[in-house]
Amino acid sequence: MTMRAFSVQETHGKLHALRREINEVRAELARSQTQLHSVIVRINALEKELEQDQAVCDVHTKASPRSPATPVRMLGDSDWSGVPMSPRSASLRVRRVQERILHMKEQQILIKKRISRKESELSMLLSRLETIESIPQQVAALLPRQDSLATAVGPRALENQQLESELRFLSRQRRAKLMTPAARARLKKERQVLLLEEFDDQLPYRRDIERMLELRKSRSSQDPLDALTERLERLQRSQFISLPPSAAAPSRRGSCINNSTEFAGLRRASLSRPFTR
Asked: Which of 181, 211, 243, 251 could be cross-linked to 258 through a Cys-Cys bond (beta carbons 3.0 to 4.6 Å apart)?
């Protein structure tokens, strides 16, 4: 997939997700505005009802306390239609209507806050949509220049890369040919030191590597007799084959050497015998 196709596909995916989010925010905003309109209508109706009930209360308050409770105005509600109101019931109804109006006004404030928040979110999403929609034009304006540069520089860059790789190979080969045996040995020793330093924190591995290097050194030695002598001396120093005096037993085939004199005799015998692999 080219850069142009990838950028166009990625931009289309982002645009689809962003448009879906914008539609959801718009739907929530429309619902909130509908709720706000219904709350405002309900508040206006309750305020008119409160005015009527307050008028009834005022008339009953101004009337003589001994006079009978005669209705001054019948309420418009279906529950109260044609029913005379007493001062107590009128005052209770006024208080109830006032509480409902207060509750509806609180709902109106919350809905207005939600609408303002959704409007700001919608404006931010629209600005992002505009920015993303302008990306393909910017990419289309930049890609022809990049393609022309690639066509102009591509073959030459590939040729330079091939020449550099060949030059590195020839220089390595020339250094290997010009290197003396002493230089090769020094380089090998430096590599061994680097290998040991790499495993310096892991002592078991370091010991294994030291043994492996010593074994290589003994195998690559020019004199096999010297290599065998060094190996026997190293075994004697490490006491891998020495046993305590209490475990003295006649040496047989396959048994360990349990005495330093026997070990010395074995060493003299091995030194006098010709070495065969």
From this structure: 243
